[in-house]
Amino acid sequence: MQFEPPKLKKHFLDHLEAIVGPDGYSVKNLDRFNYSRDSNFKSTIRIHHSALEPLPDVIVWPKDTRQLQALVRLAIRTKMPMIPFGGGSGVCGGTIAETGGMIVDMKKMYRLLKVDSANLLATAEAGIMGYTLEKELQRKGYTLGHFPSSILCASLGGYLAARSAGQNSTRYGKIEDMVRELEVVTGQGEIVQTRDVENGDGLDLNQIFTGSEGTLGFITRAVLKIYPLAPCQAFRGLRFKNMKTGIEAVRRIMQTGLKPSVVRLYDEIDTLLFMGYKKNKGITEVVKGLASPLKKLFMSTSLWGALSAPKLVSPVLQHLPTGCLLILMHEGVERLVREEQKIIMEICRDLGAEDLGEEPGRVWHEHRYSVSYKASPLFHSGAFIDTIEVATTWDKMEALYSAMLKAMSSHCLVMAHLSHAYPEGGSFYFTFLASLGGLKKSEALYDLIWDKGITACQETGGVISHHHGVGRLKKKYVDREWGGGAALYRRFKDYYDPHGIMNPGKLIELKREKKEKVA
Amino acid sequence: MLETFSKLMEYCTYCPRLCQSACPVAMTEGNESFSPWGLMQTLNQLRKGEIPLDSELAALSYKCLTCKACTTQCEHGNEIPPVLHEVRKEAVARELAPPEISGFLNKFHKHNNPFSKDLLQKLKNILPSKYFDMNPQTIYYPSCTTIAKCPEVVHDTFELFEKLKIDFVGVYPEAIQCCGYPLISGGMEYDFIDLAEVNFHALKKYKTIVSGSPACVYTLRETYKKYDFGLPGKVVTINEFLEPYLHNINYRLKKSMRTKLMYHDPCYLSRYLNEVSLPRELIAHVSGYQPMEFFDHGECTHCSGQGGCYSITSKEASDEIARRRLEEVVEKKVQTLVTQCPSCVHKFRKNSERLVVKDLISYLNDSIEGVKE
């Protein structure tokens, strides 16, 4: 493994040191190596083969907004690309230094600054880790209500940059619903403070920077809506005959105006894997019998047979007689929780659902972060895995699910669940699994599966990302999705990042616009 | 050197850094390379022969407290310290370890302890001579850090023994008052073996060895075994030893001791020795008071910042870890922090001016006035 030396001049490092001090930056090769990737699975495939991603030239740890502003001004003067870095949990390659440059790790700006209990608002610095933020809030009797499966390794800045959603988003909303004010150091080197317009007039400028993935500036601080810890939590598991009735049930639940905090509908394969959890007692004998063999299949040599012929295996797995599991979690005042459960049960029974009791919900809650641990054994065994999270409205939901499943399942084993449900629609979360070969072959297969899945999503009217962001992974699909909005974004980009140094190569293709200008 | 750990290292390499928030070093220094994920993916490249063991990589291997917070967080139970131990050993052997480590070793050799002091003499100033002359079957092994940094714990331990009418325990009377934990933890294996051998011959005659230092108990009980110096007698924590006496003896309590306190679980006690409920039971039994808990407590505790030679190579960050841990104590307006590890006591005292930091034994001794006849 060869590390190219950083392309930095001495006077640049002198300036850098004057801003952050001798311990505030690193040009060491091992640090550059460890900041060369986030948690995107294409990079994981590459590291499996000891293949490097582009290395940053330098990593910097600013301690406050003023230091960061000085860094941006230095980067403007020296045309140095700047890439924001939080926890490195991103799965779309949003923090890869595509053209080298300066990775700005925000973890030294880690404070929960204020909890305003009268107005239920919290102010925190962007480098605070999600788990730390939630822990500190819970210590004081509050919650952000944001529980993404990346909570253990994602930062608040990352949440905001990629429009993150937590597992309880149906009740608490996504991060863009929680943000009230932001402090941003833009690519112009200016500090911008957005204001809370929740109950006021004017544009919500928070929404320009939320989801901008570091391409307009650095989010350094945020004011967020918080909630008192719920006095009651309740769980339920139900089984539907198929996805069609399950989807219809979730639509009816959401459009009745109810707000369970978690709604997750698993397709047949996902149901089977979920039911395989040892502690899950609230399941039928049929499922019990099936769950274990499939798990064994997945973790044994038979897996390689299945992965080598997904075209043949997928249709069989997709028609397993497991039914489709719906997990519900409710939070709030106990009387309301009980009433909400009662109404939901009526809706589900009308659609022929089988009540599995509270156990499946409890088991899900207990293991809600476990799924991320599954990637390592699979990679170690010679398979690769990734997830595609898309969203659409209810009228297209079933068609999107079928189309994406069909498009991908010739090339990999694929399963899905519907989660993050809202009155107008929801998100489908596809997990795919394929065999690892040589580097080139694996990368090509990986790209092909993504392309098939995303194309099918766009053709059925879905959006390509619900909460993982775009990064470098999905940027080529953005123009089609954003339509006229892409041109508007490019104007924002020209304004806030006139020097083109903010996280280049992410979110959207900029070359296209240049070509258009030339034309 | 690292092939034994290949599966663990690959698992960590492919993991989306799920233990990151649990690691005090990663959270305080903010550097991905110092997170368990960063350490393991880097060392995995060393294992695969992709990068060499040089001084930069050697220094990286010391960016760990060996507190095993990551292991508790990891659903695969991956243990990082044994991997780092191999690299540190190799780094010391090839003279690639950070200069602080070789400096530490020179300092250690003066009196066979990390403090370069005659700790036996200091011990003799703390305790009356009768405890040295008893020829007992059960001895109290104070630990070098206790003698050097919190000597009152030694005094309080024997005062408590007296109150509880425990009159058969002597103090370890040898010149070497260090079990060698700092040596083995820093990768100085040969020096550790030499020290362990001397200690083994001095300790093997005792039926029971009691210590208030969890790192000493773990080293004497477990690490010595790995180097064929397994002690024939029992090595027990002070809590294990005291428990029956505290339950069976009728003693008087000082009412003034019923103040608000928090208990900090030392990582070696809670994660290496799995002693989580006993300290709380003893506090509750003696004072009738349940200690307040940190949000991260029991086996999910946070290290005080002193473990694994980290405080030798990364002094400032190590103190910062302690200060961050103490923020919750301040937030809860608690004035007394009780813990049970000399390194934790020392670290917290060093990083707090107002807080009363006590070893559990001192707290118990302060709480008990005497035995009722």
How would you portray this structure in words?
The complex is a heterodimer of chains A (519) and B (373). In chain A, strand 8 (179-186) and strand 9 (191-193) form a beta hairpin. Chain A has 519 residues and is of the alpha+beta class. Chain A has 22 helices and 18 strands. The longest helix of chain A is centred in the C-terminal third of the chain and has 21 residues, at 439-459. Chain A starts with 9 loop residues before the first helix and ends with a helix. Helices cover 41% and strands 20% of the residues of chain A. The radius of gyration of chain A is 23 Å and the shape is globular. In chain A, helix 18 (394-408) runs antiparallel to helix 19 (439-459). By secondary structure, chain B is an alpha/beta fold. Chain B folds into 3 domains: 3-97, no CATH class; 108-243, 3-Layer(aba) Sandwich (Rossmann fold), CATH 3.40.50; 251-371, Rossmann fold (3-Layer(aba) Sandwich), CATH 3.40.50. Chain B is 51% helix and 9% strand. Chain B contains 20 helices and 10 strands. In chain B, the strands form 3 sheets. Chain B has a 4-stranded parallel sheet with strand order 2-1-3-4. A 4-stranded parallel sheet of chain B has the order 7-6-8-9. In chain B, strands 5-10 form a two-stranded antiparallel ribbon. In chain B, helix 19 links the parallel strand 8 and strand 9 (356-359). In chain B, helix 10 (152-163) crosses helix 20, helix 14 (238-248) packs parallel to helix 16 (277-287) and helix 16 (277-287) packs parallel to helix 20. Chain B starts with 5 loop residues before the first helix and ends with a strand. The A-B interface holds A 1, 26, 28-31, 33-35, 39, 44, 47-48, 50, 59, 61, 85, 87-89, 91, 105, 107-108, 110, 127, 129-132, 135, 138-139, 150, 152-153, 369-370, 372-373, 375-377, 379-380 and B 7, 10-22, 27, 30-33, 38, 41-42, 45, 48, 50-51, 56-57, 60, 73-76, 295-296, 328, 331.
